[in-house]
């Protein structure tokens, strides 16, 4: 009977919580990365060179970093339902406004505001989901939410290309129409989100009393094994070396992901004279690898209950594949290697959050997760700009790919240090 209740609670969580979150993260990622497709037309229209484009990409992460803690603080005060609806509506409005930029400076401002609006959403979702399922199911659950990011590129690449290529009733340039439509869809979803989500499992009318009891008991039992913070949750996270090492590992994966997201369409465009629709379709290929890596690696990690080797091997696969891709001329073989690199990158991201959510007590989880995401996203801020500088100086995309591969190699060393630190903490 208890096993049936457990399976029923998990199934309802997946359909009533995870599925809507995945949709919102798809919109979040799409509104964040559609600039990479808009750049095919936008850069010439408003006069962006590679340095300025890299800066525009990076301005998102300035706002994203500055408002992480304020956003998650609001989440813990107003509840998930109001917080989710507010975040979604705000970033949708800013995303739609980018359709009307006339200069690089206006683009910088709106990208900054978009980062502010989306700032707490990713760590907030991780924290929210960790309050629904025990950690033995967490790698796959979090990986499913993260699957939305490659899904947004797999779906969004062709979608962006199509929207940029069709005529529209406002007679706008294709890139402007694409940004406007995708932003307005997000605004509409904010209203829907308010009625879909609940603040916590005990508020869910669609759970039976037995299912609510199973969730509460499973999480309470798990918390007994975690060390409760002796001081404030933020101070606890700040003085925990595991949080900083985990942030370094997360930083390396985000540099790899943002390298693919923001520069790959231009790599493919440089290789060919393809249409925007074809560029969008080919840009999705490495992200199919990311999606497969997330699903398969997180599933096997949950099955074996092993985390560190799954993460380390995935990072190593991504590093080797990218190094090989940088060593050969642009060709179908290089795209295949980027696919394999994406598989390794996705495998690493799919497993990563099961590690820090496992060693933080619930009382310190929100601050710890936010700290890791905040520090890790320094890579999201610096990575695209550094890649732009390397691209401008070298005149090719081989050197930036080598840079990303080297960063992922550093991630494996940080992961080894994190494992040592975790063993020391367990021994007390």
Automatic annotation (TrEMBL):
UniProt keyword annotation of Lipid biosynthesis present: no
Keywords from the named record: Membrane, Transmembrane, Transmembrane helix, Transport
Compartments, as annotated in UniProt: Membrane
Signal peptide start and end residues: none
Pfam families: MFS_1
Domain Major facilitator superfamily (MFS) profile: 17-424
Matching Gene3D superfamilies: MFS general substrate transporter like domains
Major site of localization recorded for this protein: membrane
Bilayer-crossing regions: 52-76, 83-101, 107-130, 142-165, 177-197, 243-264, 276-296, 308-328, 334-353, 365-387, 399-418
Recorded topology in the membrane: Multi-pass membrane protein
Cited InterPro entries: MFS (IPR011701), MFS_dom (IPR020846), MFS_trans_sf (IPR036259)
Name listed for the protein in its UniProt record: MFS transporter
Taxonomic source organism: Steroidobacter gossypii
């Amino acid at each position: 009977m208890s096993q049936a209740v457990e399976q029923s609670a998990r199934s309802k969580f997946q359909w009533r919580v995870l599925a809507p979150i995945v949709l919102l993260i798809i919109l979040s990622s799409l509104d964040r990365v559609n600039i990479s497709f808009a750049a095919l037309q936008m850069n010439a229209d408003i006069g962006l060179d590679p340095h300025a484009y890299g800066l525009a990409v990076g301005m998102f992460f300035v706002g994203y970093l500055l408002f992480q803690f304020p956003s998650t603080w609001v989440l813990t005060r107003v509840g998930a339902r109001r917080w989710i609806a507010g975040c979604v509506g705000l970033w949708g409005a800013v995303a739609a406004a980018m359709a009307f930029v006339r200069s690089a400076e206006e683009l910088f401002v709106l990208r900054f505001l978009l980062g502010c609006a989306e700032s707490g959403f990713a760590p907030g979702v991780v924290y929210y989901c960790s309050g629904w399922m025990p950690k033995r199911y967490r790698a796959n659950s979090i990986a499913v939410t993260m699957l939305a990011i490659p899904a947004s590129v797999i779906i969004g690449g062709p979608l962006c290309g199509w929207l940029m290529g069709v005529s529209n009733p406002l007679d706008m340039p294709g890139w402007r129409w694409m940004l406007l439509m995708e932003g307005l869809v997000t605004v509409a979803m904010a209203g829907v989100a308010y009625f879909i989500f609940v603040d916590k499992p005990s508020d869910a009318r669609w759970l039976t009393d037995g299912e609510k009891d199973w969730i509460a008991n499973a999480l309470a039992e798990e918390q007994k094994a975690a060390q409760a913070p002796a001081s404030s949750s933020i101070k606890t996270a700040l003085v925990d070396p595991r949080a900083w090492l985990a942030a370094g590992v997360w930083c390396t994966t985000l540099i790899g992901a943002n390298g693919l997201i923001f520069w790959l369409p231009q790599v493919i465009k440089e290789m060919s004279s393809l249409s925007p629709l074809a560029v969008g379709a080919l840009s999705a290929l490495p992200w199919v690898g990311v999606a497969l890596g997330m699903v398969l690696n997180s599933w096997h990690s949950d099955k074996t209950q092993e985390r560190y080797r799954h993460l380390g091997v995935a990072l190593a696969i991504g590093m080797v594949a990218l190094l090989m891709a940088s060593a050969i001329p642009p060709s179908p073989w290089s795209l295949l290697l980027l696919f394999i690199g994406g598989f390794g990158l996705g495998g690493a991201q799919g497993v990563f959050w099961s590690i820090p959510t496992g060693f933080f007590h619930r009382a310190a989880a929100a601050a710890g997760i936010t700290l890791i995401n905040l520090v890790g996203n320094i890579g999201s801020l610096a990575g695209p700009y550094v890649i732009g500088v390397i691209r401008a100086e070298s005149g090719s995309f081989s050197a930036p790919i080598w840079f990303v591969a080297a960063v992922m190699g550093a991630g494996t060393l940080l992961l080894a240090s994190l494992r040592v630190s975790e063993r020391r903490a367990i021994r007390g």
